[in-house]
């Protein structure tokens, strides 16, 4: 008799748990959609930011080919970051250039991506190699800081990606600031 009561109690608890979960998921529908929309905007902005940084790398490589061995691995990672955020245009070709070829526009100055999602016209690159590396380091550092701040509003999966990419950006900034040895 006690065994039957225990089964009934467990079955009732299970059904109550399922009802509670179903009720919670139904109540959070509009809120979940709002969070999803905000997360998608953050993901798209992050992809644009990575693509703009990629354009900086390409412009710097075009202006200072001697930095190739130092910048190419970092540029490749930035391309992977853009892809991870969903920017298919950042896929690197076998030659390492972005499929859109932002390096060919390297002469025109830019303040970054427009708020309308257009690709930047191409960042200005300092003539001095050290200054060019410093400019890239500053761009990496600013973007890492921006992504770190965005963690608070991001859903868990996107927050993990932002944290990882922000950490990589901080390392890139450090490596770019190091003296050539």
Topology diagram in text:
Layout: H1 2-27, H2 29-63, H3 68-84, H4 129-150, H5 156-177
Helix pairs in contact: 2-3, 2-4, 3-5, 4-5
Count up the domains.
Answer: 1
What does the main sheet amount to? none
Oligomer: single chain
Indicate the low-confidence ranges by residue numbers: 6-27, 92-120
Mean pLDDT, rounded to whole units? Answer: 75
The percent range for helix content is 55-70%
Structure description:
The protein is mainly alpha-helical. The protein is 67% helix and 0% strand. The protein contains five helices and no strands. The chain has helices spanning 2-27, 29-63, 68-84, 129-150, 156-177. α2 packs antiparallel against α3 (68-84) and α4 packs antiparallel against α5. It is elongated, with a radius of gyration of 23 Å. The model is unreliable at 6-27 and 92-120 (pLDDT under 50).
Give a quick set of tags describing it.
181 residues; mainly alpha; 5 helices; 67% helix; elongated
Short synopsis of the structure:
This protein has 181 residues and is an all-alpha fold. The chain has helices at 2-27, 29-63, 68-84, 129-150, 156-177. Helix content is 67%, strand content 0%.
């Amino acid at each position: 008799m006690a065994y039957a009561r225990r089964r009934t109690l467990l079955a009732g608890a299970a059904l109550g748990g399922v009802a509670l979960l179903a009720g919670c998921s139904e109540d959070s529908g509009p809120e979940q959609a709002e969070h999803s929309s905000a997360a998608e905007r953050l993901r798209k902005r992050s992809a644009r930011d990575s693509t703009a940084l990629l354009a900086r790398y390409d412009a710097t490589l075009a202006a200072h080919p001697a930095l190739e061995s130092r910048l190419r691995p970092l540029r490749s990672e930035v391309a992977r970051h853009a892809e991870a955020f969903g920017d298919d245009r950042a896929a690197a070709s076998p030659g390492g250039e972005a499929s859109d070829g932002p390096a060919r526009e390297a002469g025109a100055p830019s303040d970054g991506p427009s708020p309308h999602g257009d690709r930047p016209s191409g960042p200005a690159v300092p003539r001095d190699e050290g200054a060019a590396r410093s400019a890239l380091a500053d761009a990496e550092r600013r973007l890492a800081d921006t992504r770190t701040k965005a963690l608070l509003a991001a859903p868990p999966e996107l927050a993990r990606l932002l944290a990882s990419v922000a950490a990589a950006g901080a390392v890139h900034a450090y490596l770019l600031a190091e003296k050539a040895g």
